[in-house]
């Protein structure tokens, strides 16, 4: 029994060692890509996060609310096409801060992010309000968008 245990343990240790070795291999630095993404020496850059919160307006008319939300989604698509917004999505559960969703804008300017968020029909209608925060993250973040269409069968 002890021999079996040590054999299994040895195999696991060897497997994890190889996994660690593979993990340590670092991709070759690409200066052209880093520059095109605005990366600093750490591969990071400044963004602006907008937290959408529950607004002061409640729209009970389902048709009207549907139109507002269609406009909200179209606006997100437009901002993504213009490379202004790089992340957008709702929160999946209620929270005490009344955060409904978030945007990550490809700007370090809070003023510019506010101009962009004010183009949202749901914000204009008062369904959503917002809070704005500076944020520091991977400069490669915008790259995921080019692959999103490859993995989504439908657009919301």
From TrEMBL:
Keywords: Signal. This is YCII-related domain-containing protein. It comes from the Bacteria. InterPro entries: Dimeric_a/b-barrel, YCII. Residues 1-19 form the signal peptide. Belongs to the YciI family. Residues 63-135 form the YCII-related domain. It comes from Chryseobacterium phosphatilyticum.
């Amino acid at each position: 029994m002890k021999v079996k245990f040590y054999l299994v343990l040895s195999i696991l240790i060897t497997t994890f060692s190889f996994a660690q070795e593979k993990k340590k291999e670092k991709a070759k630095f690409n200066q052209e890509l880093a520059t095109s993404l605005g990366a600093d020496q750490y591969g990071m850059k400044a963004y602006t996060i907008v937290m959408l919160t529950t607004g002061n307006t409640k729209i009970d008319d389902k048709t009207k609310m549907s139109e507002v939300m269609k406009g909200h989604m179209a606006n997100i698509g437009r901002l993504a096409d213009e490379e202004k917004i790089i992340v957008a999505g709702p929160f999946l559960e209620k929270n005490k801060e009344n955060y409904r969703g978030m945007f990550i804008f490809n700007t370090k300017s809070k003023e510019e992010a506010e101009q962009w968020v004010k183009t949202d029909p749901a914000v204009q209608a008062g369904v959503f309000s917002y809070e704005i925060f500076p944020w520091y993250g991977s400069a490669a973040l915008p790259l995921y968008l080019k692959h999103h269409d490859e993995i989504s069968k439908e657009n919301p």
